[in-house]
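hiii, so i know i said id send this last week but things got crazy w the move. better late than never?? heres the sequnce for the chain we talked about at the cafe, plus the structure i predicted for it. fair warning i was half asleep when i ran it
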Amino acid sequence: MKIMKEIWSWTRSIGIAFAAVVFLGIFVFQPFKVNGHSMEPTLDHEDRVYVSKLSKTFSYLPDYGDIVVIDSRVDRTRSIKDDILEHPLVKLMTGQTDDPIYYVKRVIGKPGDVIELKDHQVYRNGEVLAEPYIKEVMEIVGEQEWIVPEDHIFVMGDNRNNSNDSRNIGFIPADHIIGILFMK
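okay and structure toks below
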């Protein structure tokens, strides 16, 4: 009888700890590994970063220049079920492998902004952006322009010539912003 109480006590403690870790990972912060070279020179391939998920939890958009982790599957709706099933601890327990759906990018545009690419530079609302963080001069063919819709952002990698970002995948819905980088 005493052994059963001890087992129950340990099981309950482990269950509470598991629930707390999953809760924190869904609503507060989560670690990610940078996959690829699109954020060089700011972040390197396989750098470990930590993102605050409070912007998602409390429904506010990141600021210009913030580095964010996004879900690149912009053609589908995200739900709390995605957050639970894609939590690293849940994936580990279910034997899922990493799926390269998460991209690390920089916020360039917010709702209503006009983003233009011309003369090898990025313009937001008619003004050229000062971007000391980019790797090299951006190669573009012709001029391009986008107007960021409501509840979306426009993101780009710092390695502009080697980045799959809003220029290719489109605008990022607010619910696809997984978190804002707060620690490298």
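btw The chain has one domain: 2-183. thought thatd interest u
miss u guys!!
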